[in-house]
Design goal:
The structure is a homodimer. The first copy, chain A, has about 400 residues and is an alpha/beta fold. Chain A folds into two domains: about 1-290, Queuine tRNA-ribosyltransferase-like (TIM Barrel, Alpha-Beta Barrel), CATH 3.20.20.105; about 300-395, no CATH class. Chain A has helices at about 45-50, 60-65, 65-70, 75-80, 90-105, 105-115, 150-160, 180-200, 215-225, 245-255, 270-280, 290-295, 335-340, 345-350, 355-380, 385-395; strands spanning about 1-10, 10-20, 20-25, 30, 55, 85-90, 130, 135-140, 145-150, 165, 205-210, 235, 265, 285-290, 300, 315.
Chain lengths: ~400, ~400
């Protein structure tokens, strides 16, 4: 993997990551294809939308259909027939989402991502992931099967998947974890990172993950630890504090320590306001299920031209009866397949009727919208108009 | 609307129907877009698949989003942005599916089409459609609202929708209706047909529907009645008896009576074996939800090259563990987007994982497969090789 920075503006960077399966421009938003599929979008859609890179989930693919099977069938690129770059996470996030995330009942994870996926199972609220010094034990809520993820195992699975960019196994802590626990988890994450460096498939590009919760000394310690080791890039993961400002502080602590010449991936973040503020602080890569999840629930992205702002989170809710007879597209400034072809009135009808086509079109628009925004952000860094663009979108600089 | 027959071979015909919104070749299979959407397929997909004509449902669109709203927004073509021919049914079929179909618990209608659509409602098994001489009263299971469909009203709704080909309101009887009831219903259907002729929007092409259940004299009477009136074409609807042979007998009784120069639409039929046997008897148009419904449930069409035959109904079930590591496309003879891009192993993974993309791809393949079969059938009529094709597919002539 190569990372070439072609433009900088203050702490912001425009670059290009190149792998054997293709390249992508940074700052980039990476849509999530958990099980090797992006809602109703096929590979032709991804191509048309300009998706150069996707992120798939190691833990989920290990369970279903199995990384061994994917390897036999020629790897994940071939299995899902995606001609672009594939990133896989390490499974460490699920240590949180299926572990303390559930036990602490921490908002979006416990309620949304996980429960939606297992609504047919007999989940009753207990933790389904257990962390020890050796690794993470998962109890699959559907089959009851226990799966153990060690650093070595995570590297093996990701090698079987054949993704281009892989992540070291980490323990993703909860915002409710105290400093003592977070420090202990960080030690583990660091030991695991060294094990991953030892065992990873050298044909892949390994990213280390900076952890440490909302604690400045832990974050700085982690950033130093990772920066001193030969990773292809760096993730910033785990609990990003309790507020937007906490998140920005964490980035401010961490990025100056990380090597300039390596890409920095802020894991799991993707709201419009965050994209601006984090790119501004030197973040190169983002991934998030948000565009697809909001789409599913009826929230469609709109630009400032349609009244999008930080308060409405740049979204309309298509169920709103105001759209019942609205012949306009979702966003007049958007040149996606959906906005070029369909009215809000039609989309509202599909949403209210629970038509399958709604989910496809809504996901298409929302993902396209964010990709297009990232393109504008890249251009604004190149011509030093980032703050004008930020002002236009967020209303502040 | 114009219908031009360009080739004939025995009782079979190849022709073209032309309307102001485009034309389609016959014999044709018309996919069903009940609420103005075809599962996960958008208008670009329909174009790529070569869909020249679709059928939407008058009753369902009247309820949701309302034909008045669709009219305000420029009609159904504009609302769903479909650049092709739109056929709408009359609502008469729902007199059966929501009426005696439910009361008699008649298989596929009561169990599948209807209940799937209202799984969130409080339906308890009673009839939801009531036929009188004036028309059909429907009780919407979701809202409890009572909707009355008279011949005049059905014409008004279809005029508001702005479809190209419309159907006269009929009473579709149950296979469990006795002869006395069927005869009474037939009288009503005939009276209603005359009312529809009086009230229909003359910019649209009105088809009359031949009813009469499984009773030869009633069917012949109905065919004569309809043939004597100035319809643009003719539907053959209602109960087509209790066996495949009953259905073929009904077609044999009816088609010789109907005018040669008008298209004949066999309503609601679409199985592979039926398409061959009914085209052979002079049917020009078919519509059926089957390809999409089977797709949804995991049944994917295969040609004789993949072992498709009347016994397996030309379908595999993708959940079969034999496909777990099968790198082949669904059908090697199929040149659809799905077969050109994805393996059975991937589709099985999507199906088992209940991924949205499965439904899109499966529907795409199944609909394309049937459209492609119809193309082959048309070509076989043109070059008089129909019986060779039929032998190859059905194993008999």
């Amino acid at each position: 993997m190569k990372f070439k920075i072609v433009h900088t503006f203050e702490r912001m960077r425009v670059g290009e990551v190149t792998t054997i399966h293709g390249s992508f421009k940074t700052p980039v938003f990476i849509p999530v294809a958990t099980l090797g599929a992006m809602r109703g979008l096929d590979n032709r859609d991804l191509k048309d939308m300009g998706v150069e890179v996707i992120l798939a989930n190691t833990y989920h693919l290990h369970i279903r259909p199995g990384d061994q099977l994917i390897k036999e069938l020629g790897g994940l690129h071939k299995f899902m027939n995606f001609k672009g770059v594939i990133v896989t996470d390490s499974g460490g996030f699920q240590a949180f989402s299926l572990g303390y995330g559930l036990e602490h009942g921490v908002g979006k994870i416990a309620n949304n991502i996980f429960l939606e996926g297992i609504k047919n199972c007999s989940y009753k609220g207990e933790k389904l992931a257990f962390v020890s010094d050796n690794g993470i034990k998962f109890k699959d809520p559907k089959s009851g099967i226990v799966v153990e993820l060690t650093p070595k195992k995570s590297m093996e699975i990701q090698s079987n998947l054949g993704s281009d960019i892989i992540f070291a196994l980490d323990e993703c802590t909860s915002p409710l974890s105290d400093k003592e626990y977070t420090a202990k988890a960080l030690e583990r994450t660091h030991r695991w990172a060294e094990e991953c460096l030892q065992y990873y498939d050298k044909k892949q590009a390994l990213f280390g993950i900076v952890q440490g919760g909302e604690y400045r000394d832990l974050r700085e310690k982690s950033a130093k630890f990772m920066a001193e080791r030969d990773f292809a890039g760096y993730g910033i993961g785990g609990s990003l504090g309790k507020s937007k400002q906490d998140m920005l502080n964490i980035i401010d602590w961490v990025t100056p320590i990380l090597p300039e010449e390596k890409p920095r991936h802020l894991l799991g973040i993707g709201a419009v306001e965050d994209l601006f503020n984090c790119v501004e602080r030197g973040i190169d890569m983002f991934d998030c299920v948000a565009p697809a999840r909001w789409a599913r629930r009826g929230h469609l992205y709109i630009s400032p031209a349609e009244g999008g702002n930080p308060k409405n989170k740049f979204r309309i809710h298509i169920r709103n009866s105001a759209f019942r007879r609205d012949p306009k597209p979702i966003d007049r400034d958007c040149d996606c397949l959906v906005c070029q072809n369909y009215s809000r009135a039609y989309l509202r009808h599909l949403f209210v009727s629970n038509e399958l086509l709604y989910f496809r079109l809504a996901t298409y628009h929302n993902v396209y919208f964010i990709l297009n925004l990232m393109k504008k952000i890249r251009e604004s860094i190149k011509d030093c108009s980032f703050y004008e663009l930020k002002k236009e979108w967020l209303g502040y600089v």
